[in-house]
Amino acid sequence: MVMTLEEAIMKVAQLDPYQNVNIPFTPYITSPSGKVTVEPQMTRGFAFCSICNMVTGDGSITVRHIDGRTVEFHPVLYHYVKVGHPVPVAANRFDGVVSWKYGRRILGEEEKLNNITLLVDIMSDA
């Protein structure tokens, strides 16, 4: 059975100490297989869900495979999956690009694009 993008995001959450209290805080967390590392980089600040305006943490999550494939995404995706919002994958020439808007009180609205297509493949090896 093929893993969905939502399942891959939640598998990353299990390796993120900001999402899983049983994981110790270290610069990176290695998956049980030893093939994948998760590097949460939370910053001071917050972001808003563009669907329900829930306040979430700000920063980035970097997921690296031992073969060099890397995906980076905003932690608001954890919120999207946990509450059942659709993960906003754009259908355009950048196929597989995740597009979402999040706000900051100082900077206003920003749009952030990240390639997420590799996350399912990477986390299948975790």
Secondary structure layout plus pairing:
Blueprint: H1 5-13, E1 29-30, E2 36-48, E3 55-65, E4 70-73, H2 76-83, E5 97-104, E6 108-115, H3 118-124
Antiparallel strand pairs: 1-2, 2-3, 3-4, 5-6
Helix pairs in contact: 1-2, 1-3
What does this structure look like?
With 126 residues, the protein is α+β, with helices and mostly antiparallel strands. It has one domain. It contains three helices and six strands. It has helices at residues 5-13, 76-83, 118-124, and strands at residues 29-30, 36-48, 55-65, 70-73, 97-104, 108-115. The strands form two sheets. The protein has a four-stranded antiparallel sheet. Strands 5-6 form a two-stranded antiparallel ribbon. Helix 1 packs across helix 2 and helix 1 (5-13) packs across helix 3 (118-124). The protein starts with a helix and ends with a helix. The model is unreliable at 91-97 and 99-114 (pLDDT under 50).
Strand order, largest beta sheet: 1-2-3-4
Portion of residues within helices: 10-25%
User: First CA to last CA: what distance?
Assistant: 15 Å
Structural class: alpha+beta
How many helices? The count is 3
| Cα Rg | 14 Å
Describe the main β-sheet briefly: 4 strands, antiparallel
Stretches with pLDDT under 50, minimum 5 residues: 91-97, 99-114
The SSE order reads HEEEEHEEH
Keywords:
globular, alpha+beta, 3 helices, 4-stranded antiparallel sheet, two-stranded antiparallel sheet, 126 residues
Give a concise summary:
This protein is α+β, with helices and mostly antiparallel strands and 126 residues long. The protein is 19% helix and 37% strand.
